[in-house]
């Protein structure tokens, strides 16, 4: 089971924390607590997570 942490500009909700806040430090994305994260990619206003 993997974990996912995100930080940066979250003004479009792309960090996955359920808000539109900017995070200066990595914060765990709780949605992925019981899932296995295989790959992650990020763009300027989006994110994509591939699960196993």
Strands, helices and their partners?
Elements: E1 5-8, E2 23-28, E3 37-42, E4 47-51
Antiparallel strand pairs: 1-2, 3-4
Question: Strand-residue fraction?
Answer: 35-45%
How many structural domains does the protein architecture include? 1
**Widest sheet: strand order?**
1-2
The class by helix and strand makeup works out as mainly beta
**Based on DSSP secondary structure assignment, what is the total number of beta strands?**
4
Pfam family, one: RCC1
RCC repeats: 2-52
InterPro entries: RCC1/BLIP-II, Reg_chr_condens
Keywords, please?
about 50 residues; mainly beta; RCC1/BLIP-II
Written description of the protein model:
By secondary structure, the chain is mainly beta. It has one domain (5-51). It is 0% helix and 40% strand. The protein has a two-stranded antiparallel sheet. The chain has a two-stranded antiparallel sheet with strand order 3-4. The protein is globular, with a radius of gyration of 11 Å. It holds the Pfam family RCC1. InterPro entries: RCC1/BLIP-II (IPR009091), Reg_chr_condens (IPR000408).
């Amino acid at each position: 089971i993997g974990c996912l942490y995100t930080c940066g500009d979250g003004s479009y909700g792309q960090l996955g924390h359920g808000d539109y806040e900017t995070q200066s430090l990595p914060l765990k994305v709780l949605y992925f607590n019981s899932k296995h994260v295989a790959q992650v990619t990020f763009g300027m206003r989006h994110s994509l997570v591939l699960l196993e």
